[in-house]
Amino acid sequence: MLAVDDLTVRYGPIVAVRGASIRVAAGEMIALLGPNGAGKTSLVSGVIGLVPATGRVVFDGADVSALPTEERVRRGMTVVPEGRRVFANLTVAENLRLGGFVRRHARDLADDRERYLAMFPVLRERLDQVAGTLSGGEQQMLAIARALMSRPRLLVLDEPSLGLAPRIVARIFEHIAELKRAGLTIILVEQNMMQALAVADRAYVIGTGTIRHEGPAAALRADPRLVDMTMGA
Questions:
Q1: What is the Cα–Cα distance from 131 to 203, expressed in whole angstroms?
Q2: Which of 2, 112, 115, 184 has the smallest number of Cβ neighbours within 10 A?
Q3: What is the bridge-based pairing of β-strands 185-190 and 154-158?
Q4: What is the pTM of this model?
């Protein structure tokens, strides 16, 4: 579904990602691992078009490298950004409505909203509540539900466990596993290595902007060198 070749992201003189290449098959979940500052967010931001990048991004057989983010979203690529970034001054219901703004046919929006409110029941209880007053875990659930309202075929989750209590992280990962079982293609960006590898099919390890290792998630999880590979990346 996704082929990224020789992707490079620069911020002025700083090269955040250098010549990265990744592949994601339809229905597959890959984990993108690495320490803070390794270039994980820059890589997925380049894929979705949130930052300027060179290289080639092919999505579902079409080269989308020159397309703006909105058009990539229309084609089925969606990101849940690091730090959640819900619209803090809008209600939960309004956030969900905005999640579907790229949909050309809005007939099924209500059905989709019901589906994701069933997945995240706490959001139904908070529909009229301003999003900025939600807990961190509730905001993460809202951010995921809002992204799903665009009906993505590729969902990028950027650090979904960041800043959350362990019991909330466990619940978020249950939902991620549920989305994978439903056949959604997912890129999971995480510092929580073992939790990510427990749900992913394959993983890439990135360090100082370069892909250092890749392989099946189960094999990496069982490799005693994993911590050294990741922290030394």
A1: 33
A2: 115
A3: parallel
A4: 0.90
